[in-house]
Amino acid sequence: MNKKNGATQAVGGRLEAGQRENEPRGLAAPRENSSIYGLNQIGTTPLDSSRENNSGASIQEKSSSGKILERLELIEKTFLSYVHGQQNLFETRLEESKGTEAFFKEEVQALKEEIYDLVSTEEQIEEIV
Fold it and tell me: d(Cα 6, Cα 95) in Å, to the nearest integer?
């Protein structure tokens, strides 16, 4: 913002030579057929390319059913491995928790017995006196 004669004026940014007002700035434009699943090459438009495949990406052929099955089996194996690992951790934590609970109950019972013994001893002393 600039001030001229006490009034604020908006100052627009300059456009680069040959650039339209709403044209995005960047190195390349995305292709119309680009896919998020990697089935089509993502790179520069043919008009911007000086060589073939300069982006380092290669055009991937559609997966065969065998490759899809391999991917599915890998996903299944990975997921089940994770789930079984979590189950083992939960079981270990459950056993630790049960052990802590048992120790806690034993200690509370021992304290209750000590308190009972103290109260009984005080009552016996009061009876004697």
Answer: 76
22: three-class secondary structure by DSSP: coil
pTM for the structure as a whole: 0.41
50, 44 contact by CB (below 8 A)? no
* Higher-pLDDT residue of 84, 128: 84
**Percent of the chain scored above 70 by pLDDT?**
51
Contacts of 59 (CB under 8 A, 6+ apart): 40, 41
Rounded distance, CA 4 to CA 30, Å?
42
The single-letter code of the amino acid at 6 is: G
Residue type at position 8: T
Predicted confidence band at 57 (pLDDT cuts at 50, 70, 90)? very low
